[in-house]
Design goal:
globular, alpha/beta, 8 helices, 283 residues, four-stranded mixed sheet, single chain
C-alpha cells in the first residue's frame, strides 16, 4: 500500500474542534442513558436531579457553553495508521497546539498545573495533553479526545492485588472505590476497569474502557457478565444521582483486560462523571 501524507496542521485543527465540541455537546449515548435512568430511577429526588442534568446538557448544547465548569485535562488517544507519513512538523507539538487553540477559542477553563509538587503554576493553555499513541494497520489517523475532569479522576484507584484474591477481590476493590468516592465524582458515574498488564498499562486500560458506548455490552460473554455484576452491585450502594440517594449510582461499567505476570494481578478503576465528554475524528 502506498504511503499517504498527512499534514500535521490538519491534526491541530481536528484537536482544536474536538476540544470545543466535547465540552459543549454531551455524546448521544450518554444523554440517552441519562434519560433512561430518569425513567427508571426509584427516588423522587434522584429523578429530579437527573432531570436537571439533562436540562444542563440541553442548555450547554443550545447556548454553546461548557457542560461543566471543569473542562478537564485533554486526554488524546491516537491510532496512527502504519501507512501514514506525517509532514509539516512534530506530531506531539501539533496535538498540543490543537489543545491550546481549542481551549482558547472555546473559552474553556485551563486546569493544568506545572511543578505539581511545589509551585503548581498554571500552564495557561491546558497543555500538555496526555497523549496515548498506537500504531495500527491502514493509512488513516484516528483521534479521540476525552476531557477528563479532576473531581472524577481523583476518585480513581490502582490496586495491585494478589492472584489468590481472584475476581471476588477485584469486585470488592471496585465497590470500595465507588463507595469511598460517594458524591465527589458527580454521579451517576461511568466506571472503567482495567485488569492485567503492568502497573502502567492497567491504568491506561481502565481509561480506555471509558470510551465504550454507554449501553453496549462486551463482545466476550465472560467480561459482559462481570460488567453486569459490577453495575448491579454499584447501583445497590444507594449513593444515587449527585450523592443524594437513589438507584442510579452508575450508568455503565466497562472492562478491558489483558494478560499479566503469573505473580501479579493489577487492577485499576477509572471513575468518570455523568458528563462523559469525548469526541472522535478520522483523518
Amino acid at each position: 500500500m502506498p504511503v499517504r501524507e498527512l499534514e500535521v496542521g490538519d491534526i491541530t485543527e481536528a484537536v482544536r474542534a474536538m476540544c470545543i465540541t466535547a465540552n459543549y455537546d454531551l455524546p448521544a449515548d450518554v444523554y440517552d442513558a441519562l434519560v433512561s435512568a430518569k425513567e427508571a430511577e426509584e427516588s423522587p429526588v434522584g429523578r429530579e436531579v437527573l432531570g436537571q442534568l439533562i436540562e444542563n446538557a440541553d442548555i450547554a448544547a443550545a447556548d454553546r457553553v461548557p457542560i461543566c465548569q471543569d473542562t478537564g485535562f485533554a486526554v488524546i488517544f491516537a491510532e496512527v495508521g502504519q501507512d501514514v507519513h506525517l509532514v509539516g512538523g512534530d506530531f506531539d507539538d501539533a496535538v498540543n497546539e490543537g489543545v491550546r487553540r481549542g481551549y482558547a477559542d472555546g473559552y474553556l477553563r485551563k486546569s493544568v498545573a506545572a511543578e505539581p509538587a511545589q509551585a503548581r503554576r498554571n500552564t495557561t493553555d491546558n497543555t500538555p495533553a496526555i497523549l496515548h499513541t498506537s500504531i495500527v494497520p491502514g493509512d488513516t489517523l484516528r483521534l479521540t479526545m476525552m476531557a477528563k475532569g479532576g473531581g472524577a479522576e481523583n476518585m480513581s484507584s490502582l490496586n495491585m492485588l494478589k492472584p489468590s484474591q481472584g475476581w471476588d477481590g477485584m469486585c470488592q476493590a471496585v465497590i470500595d472505590t465507588v463507595s469511598r468516592a460517594g458524591s465527589n465524582p458527580c454521579p451517576p458515574v461511568i466506571i472503567g476497569v482495567g485488569i492485567g498488564g503492568t502497573i502502567d498499562m492497567v491504568t491506561v486500560l481502565a481509561k480506555k474502557a471509558l470510551l465504550r458506548e454507554v449501553g453496549s455490552t462486551h463482545p466476550d460473554p465472560r467480561l459482559a457478565g462481570m460488567e453486569a455484576e459490577l453495575l448491579e452491585k454499584i447501583n445497590a450502594l444507594g449513593i444515587g444521582p449527585q450523592g443524594l440517594g437513589g438507584s442510579t449510582t452508575a450508568l455503565a461499567v466497562f472492562i478491558e483486560e489483558m494478560p499479566c505476570h503469573i505473580a501479579s494481578m493489577p487492577m485499576a478503576v477509572n471513575v468518570q462523571c455523568h458528563a462523559q465528554r469525548h469526541r472522535t475524528v478520522e483523518l
